Every structure is written in structure tokens, then in C-alpha cells.
Amino acid sequence: MDVLTCAACSLRCMSHEPISAPMIEAAAVAHEPHRIAFYLYDLASEFHALWTRGRDLPYLRFIINNDAEITKARLALVQGVVSVLASGLAILGVHAPDEMR
Fold it and tell me: What is the pLDDT of residues 6-24, one digit of tens each?
């Protein structure tokens, strides 16, 4: 599976049922906050799989030294995932660390 396919999977996961007012309202009305948590878990899992592939296959890494265009696109994907995860965790009242070591 190439990086574009993996990125598309992550983007599909993010856009399939985006964290939106209707999703939040549905989770609240049904008393099912786990809907949001499961969504975030699925997104994080997709991203982790994409990140891990780059460890073994250098052309799938997010930063490609000799290709600024691909690097920018991949870093935009990372920023999108960060944004969705941070806002989703905030909705749940969970503080996310700025970085993990």
C-alpha cells in the first residue's frame, strides 16, 4: 500500500463521520460519549499505521529530504490529524500532551 493510499485511508477516517455539532449532539443525547472516543481511537490507529510503515520503507516517511512538495503535503496531513485529535479530546475533557517521549 503506498503512502497516498494510506493518507487517503486516514482522511476517509477523519471525514467519514467528522467530529461535528451533530455527532456531538447525537453522542450527548444517547449518553454515548464513547462514540467520540472510538472515532479518535480509529483515527489515531490509522495514523500510527501510516507512521510505522515509514520506519521500514524510507519512501513512506513523512519528511523526504529531496522532495519539499511531498513533505509539505504529508506534514499537512499530520497537522490535520493533530487538530482533530486535540479538538476531540478537548470535547471529552481530556488534556493532550504537546509531545510524548
Answer: 665 666 556 555 677 888 8
Confidence of residue 2 (pLDDT cuts 50, 70, 90): low
N-term to C-term CA, the chain:
28
d(CA 60, CA 72): 13
Cα separation of 11 and 5, whole Å?
10
CA 41, 46, 49, 55 dihedral sign is: negative
pTM to 2 decimals? 0.80
